[in-house]
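SAMPLE LOG
Freezer: B-3
Tube label: C17
Construct: single chain, 355 aa
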Amino acid sequence: MLDAAPAKKPLVEVRGLKMHFPITAGLFRRQVGAVKAVDGVSFDIHEGETLGVVGESGCGKSTCGRAVLRLYDITEGTIRIDGRDIGQVPQASLRQMRPTMQMVFQDPQASLNPRMTVQSIIQEPLDEHTKMSKAEKREKVFQLMDAVGLNRRFAGRYPHAFSGGQRQRIGIARALALNPKFIVCDEPIAALDVSIQAQVVNLLEDLQKEFGLTYLFISHDLSMVRHIATRVAVMYLGKIVELSPREALYAEPLHPYTEALLSAVPEPDPVLHDTAERIILTGDVPSPANPPKGCNFCTRCPRVMDICRDIDPDYREVRPGRYVACHLYNETQDQTAGTTAAPVEEQEHPTRRVK
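STRUCTURE (predicted):
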C-alpha cells in the first residue's frame, strides 16, 4: 500500500483580519463610527490551490483581498505569506515582499496606464524590482506575452487598441512578471463579455499548472467559482459564514445564507429549472456601519432563533474541512446559553420559496 501524500503547507495564513474604515463628523473630523468592511476573517490557502471567495455586492470580498496583500493598513489581525508576518509591517518594508504577491484587478481598462505601451506596462515591475539589462527585460516581456496568448507584435501598442479580454491578459502578464507565488484575482472576469470569460479563466488555470501559482479568486459568479476553485469561502456583511471544499459546498450547503445564494444560480436544464426551488431573501442587507446584534444574517435568515439575535455564532469546524458560523451547528453554546430553538415552522419567515 502506498503512503499518503503529505499535505501541502499553507502559503497564506489569515487570522482575525479586520478592516474598519472610520466615519468622521464635525468641524474637527472626530471619528463617530466605523464601516466594518471586513470583521474578523480567518482562512488558510495552501500552495497550488485556489480559494474562491463569493458573496453579494458589498459583502467585503474585494476589501478582504486587498487587505491580505496589504494594499490597506489593516485594523487588526495577522497575515502570514510564505512564512512571514506582514500584518503590521510598514508599507516601506513591504517592498521586498511585493514580488511574492501580486494582484489582477477587476477592471482592466482602469488598471492599465493609457499613456504606456504594452511593453512598458509589463516591464514596469522589472524596472522597479530587478537589475536586468534592457535586452533581458525585453525578452522577458515577450515570454510573458507568449504565456498569456498575446502576439509579440502588439508590444508597442497602447491599451485602447485592445479588447477587454486582451487588456485582462496584459494585466495577468504584468502580475506574472516577478514570478509571484500568490495572486489575488479580484473579479477578473466581471467586466468581460460572457464569451471571453471562459478564455480568461482557462488561461488562469493553465498558468497555475505551469508556474505553480496559488490564487485567491474573488467573484460573484458562482458557476465560474465552481469551475476554478479548490475550496470556497462564502462572505456576508464582512464575515465568512461558511468555508468548505468546492463539491461538498455545492452538493450540501450548511449555512442558510449559502443555501439561498446557491439557489439563485441559473439552472440550464429546462426541466430542472422549472422544478427547482428558489429561496428569495426579503429585506435589505444591514449597513456594515451598523451591523445587527448577534448574527449578521439574523435579520434575513429563514431559520432564525432567539439566540441568533443576541449572540454572534462561533466560526468553527463542524465536519472535516468544513467551517460554519451558525448557531444551528453550535449545539454546545446554545445549551450553555439555555436557549431553546423554536421550530422553524412557528417562526416569522423573512424569506419565501418560489418555483
